[in-house]
Amino acid sequence: MKILSMLSRNLWRGVTTLRFPARPPVTMRFRGLVRMNPALCIGCAICRFRCTSRAITFSAGKNEFTWSYDPGQCTFCGRCIEGCKEQALTQEAACPPVYLSIGDLKTSYTIPRKPPAPRSPAAVPRAPDSQPTQGVTP
Ligand code: SF4
Ligand code: SF4
Description:
The chain is of the alpha+beta class and 138 residues long. The chain is built from three helices and five strands.
């Protein structure tokens, strides 16, 4: 008899899941999507190594590198942001958009590598004034 009342309740209570494309409410503890500022990124790839979900991919060329992020694979753990010393990564507390296929939300940046800064004369080590002695004789 109990099963019948359960069935009856389930049949008549209506829809309890969200209807597409409605989005679930964002909870207080949700950290959000990762955003990258290409102007600050130096291409060190630390974020890629810290991301165990493989949401960040990185390919390096001689004069440029490509950084990609797929929110569909992201667990929003924040490890990439903690590891980015350049403050190039942030998380926005917005709900992830609805997507239909893996890779729909993927973003990529191809960034030219910055040339190394010229060395200042003060930083160049000076040659010693005297030659080192080859041996010491008493
Ligand atoms: S850790 Fe930061 S600076 Fe390094 S590749 Fe990632 S986003 Fe760029
Ligand atoms: S938040 Fe976590 S899962 Fe998402 S890209 Fe960063 S390290 Fe990877």
